[in-house]
Amino acid sequence: MKRTALATAATLALSAGTVLAGADFQDYARVQNVSPQYEQINVPRQECYSETVPQTSYRRNDSLAGPIIGGVAGGLLGSRFGAGSGRVATAAIGAVAGAIVGDRIQSRGGEVEYSEREVRRCRTVDHWESRLNGYHVAYEYQGRSYTTFLPYDPGLRLPVRVSVEPSGR
User: Fold this and answer.
1) C-alpha span between 47 and 127 (Å, rounded)
2) Alpha helix locations (H) across the chain?
3) Cys bridge to 48: 5, 60, 66, 122, which one at CB 3.0-4.6 A?
4) For residue 163, what are the CA distances in angstroms to 13, 112, 132, 157?
5) pLDDT tens per residue, the chain (169 residues)?
């Protein structure tokens, strides 16, 4: 019986030693402080608005009365100068000059129209947002303090993986 008890004790001691050498297990650490960490991110956006812009347009009187009357008057006036074929030349020059002057005078009498039109203008503006990046966590396990960065708030207890290995002495 002593041998069986001794063998059982030896087996338990050896198996306990192998379980502890290189064993990993999960435990819980006490969370001391949790600080959310934020980062500033630029999210540009488009701002658009409409404004009314004055617009001026000129409406020309498109009749041929001005150039015709000017041409006839210029031709009559030009025919008073010169003699023979020179008189025909001065009449032709007077008709052309009169037509040009008549057109210009008629154009001055055109109507000016004032109106407004709506113009849409857009610009890109910076828009800064604070986004949660994660949590800086301070915790205590077995009397020692540790810190880590987590993507979530762990609450009051933090699950930790404990690894036991021989010290090698």
Assistant:
1) 11
2) 2-20, 65-78, 85-108
3) 122
4) 19, 91, 32, 19
5) 454 544 444 444 444 444 445 689 999 999 999 999 999 999 999 999 999 988 877 666 667 777 788 778 777 777 777 777 777 777 778 778 878 887 777 766 566 778 888 999 999 999 999 999 999 999 999 999 999 999 999 999 999 999 988 887 6
The CATH classification of domain 23-38+132-169, taken from the options 1.10.1040, 1.10.10, 2.40.50, 1.20.58: 2.40.50
pTM exceeds 0.70 for this model: no
Domain ranges within the chain, ordered by starting residue:
23-38+132-169, 45-124
